Each structure stands twice: as C-alpha cells, then as structure tokens.
Amino acid sequence: IKWTEGRGWHDAQLVPYAPLSIDPANMTLHYAQTIFEGLKAYRQPDGSVASFRPEANAERFQASARRLAMPELPVETFIAACEALVRQDKAWVPSEGEASLYLRPFMFATEVGLGVRPSNEYLFLVIASPAGAYFSGGVKPVSVWLSEEYVRAAPGGTGAAKTGGNYAASLVAQAQAIGHGCDQVVWLDAIERRWIEEMGGMNLYFVYGDRIVTPELSGSLLPGITRDSLLSIAADLGYEVAEGRISVEDWKRGNEDGTLTEVFACGTAAVITPVGSVKSTRAGWTVADGQPGAVTMRLRAALLDIQSGRAADPHGWMRPLGA
Ligand code: PMP
C-alpha cells in the first residue's frame, strides 16, 4: 500500500514476493525513516488460522509512525493486509507444535532527495516466513551480557518505537555479547547505566517466588506485546505482578540472597526464554540454578496454549485471519 502527501493511502496490491528497485537517493537509505512489526499466525485445532493480538501490533505501528514523523496506517488496514497475505499463503502456516507463520509488516520512505525532512511518500508492505519452534531440542536458558559501554536508547529518543535505527545501534553491543561468550545483550538505562531496560529483542521479567516484576516502560524500552500479555496471564494464574525498577545491584543481590528465583525474557519470536547466566565487565553469575524455572515454564505453556487454541482465550486476544 502506498501513501502520498495530499492523497493518503492508495494502491493496495497483493503481489508475488520479489526484489524492490530502489533509487540511490531514496531517503530511507540515508535517514532511516523506517518502522516495522513482528507477529505470528498460528494454526488452530479446527484448521483455521488466527493471530495473536494483531490490534496491539497495529497500534504500536501507529505509535512508531508518529515518533518517526510518518503517516499512521489505520488499524483495520494493517490487519486486512496481514489477512490478505495469510489467505494467500495459508498452506505455509505450519500445523505442528510451536511452529507458526511469522508476519513482518513494515513501512519506509520512498521519496528521492537528499534534504533531511520527513518524506512525502511511503510504502507499507507485509512479508511472511514460516517459523519453526524457537528451541528445537527443548527450552534452553540463554546467557546474557550486560552492556555498560553502549546504550540502545536514551530519554526522548526512539527506544519505544520499532524502528530500524534502534537495531542498527544495537549490533556492536550484540557482537560484544557474542565475543564474551554470551547469547544476548541486556541494555541498561542511558543516564545512570544502572537500571535494567530490556534484552536485544525481548523484554525481561524477574521472579521472586510468587511475585513477578518487569521493568517499567521507561520511554526508552520497547512496549512488548508479550510483556503486556504476561502481566495479565501471570495475574490470572494467581501471581502478584508488578512493573517497577530493577537495578543491576538488585539482580545481583537477589541472586545472592536467594530471593530472586528466576529470570526470563519474552517476545514474539521465542515466546519465553529462561535467562541462565549473566556477565559484565565487573561480574558474572548464574541465575538461581541456571535451569529453566517452574514459573517461567508455567507461563510459557499458558501463553502457547492460548496462541495455539488449546486453551480458552479469556482476554479475546486471538483474531481469526484468513479462515
Ligand atoms: N524489545 C525489543 C527491542 C524487541 O525487538 C522486541 C520484539 N518485537 C521485544 C522487546 C518484544 O516485543 P513483542 O513481545 O511485541 O514481540
């Protein structure tokens, strides 16, 4: 779907996957005016296909558009575009286990010019790719690197938007994490370099027995839809759930005195991933016994059961797509 100044959205088309031709002076290549979303379509027990909270993805896409001075796509147009693609590609929606069809809606500037200003033309696209179970040999805890040198996002910046620049800014820290033998980077706040924000592509949860805490939306972390859903699911299951501030010292101390029993990360791709160990330039520790915890696995099963249609959907999160 195209957007042109003075004309709005027009020319919705369903076309075979193919390369795009881009002008060398396309503004996106230079000024990164680009946003995206990630959501999944799941095969339901009756053979139909449904996606998980696509309205929430559509609304976050609108929020990202506002932050990047881009036009907002109506929620129903966003969902209709996903639905048109899923109808076409229905055969590609897997039926086994945790597999799904990953949908990637995105929008970028298409105007040609070298001046730094919002583009007058945009293109919105959706592509899809079948996604197998994230863990092939059973759930495996990840090791994380606390990034003290680099920050992903600062107050007033674009951290709460899903825009390419945030991910470009994170690549060097992710490479450092790998260099230190860790799987993922954990970001701290930009001002004090003390408060836990999020992981490279997932939000974090800290489990203290029956009490579960996730870092509050500081303005510089992505408001994850899995994070938001777990606030409700955990409460439904009887846990005490809160959003709050958690510092590196809190994490270390809770681990030492045994009050912190589990840490996990959550996001669309991996659903829920236990965090097994932590490393930084100054310290390193194993989270509890380093194994997937009972609360982590219980929440993971509860969320997957809703997404795959095996459990009731008390919050009305599943939306039929391309039935
Ligand atoms: N933080 C970042 C930086 C991400 O890229 C993602 C993945 N979209 C998340 C958190 C988790 O968000 P969600 O649960 O909506 O997938």
From TrEMBL:
UniProt KW keywords: Amino-acid biosynthesis, Aminotransferase, Branched-chain amino acid biosynthesis, Pyridoxal phosphate, Transferase
Cofactors required: pyridoxal 5'-phosphate
CDD domains noted in UniProt: BCAT_beta_family
TM stretches of this protein: none
Superkingdom of this protein's organism: Bacteria
GO molecular function annotation: branched-chain-amino-acid transaminase activity
UniProt source species: Actinacidiphila polyblastidii
The EC number(s) this enzyme carries: 2.6.1.42
Pathways involved: Amino-acid biosynthesis; L-leucine biosynthesis; L-leucine from 3-methyl-2-oxobutanoate: step 4/4; Amino-acid biosynthesis; L-valine biosynthesis; L-valine from pyruvate: step 4/4; Amino-acid biosynthesis; L-isoleucine biosynthesis; L-isoleucine from 2-oxobutanoate: step 4/4
Reactions the enzyme catalyzes: L-leucine + 2-oxoglutarate = 4-methyl-2-oxopentanoate + L-glutamate; L-isoleucine + 2-oxoglutarate = (S)-3-methyl-2-oxopentanoate + L-glutamate; L-valine + 2-oxoglutarate = 3-methyl-2-oxobutanoate + L-glutamate
PANTHER family per the UniProt record, alphabetical: BRANCHED-CHAIN-AMINO-ACID AMINOTRANSFERASE, SUBGROUP IIII AMINOTRANSFERASE
Family per similarity comment: Belongs to the class-IV pyridoxal-phosphate-dependent aminotransferase family.
Keyword Chloroplast part of the UniProt annotation: no
Record carries keyword Transcription: no
Official protein name in the record: Branched-chain-amino-acid aminotransferase
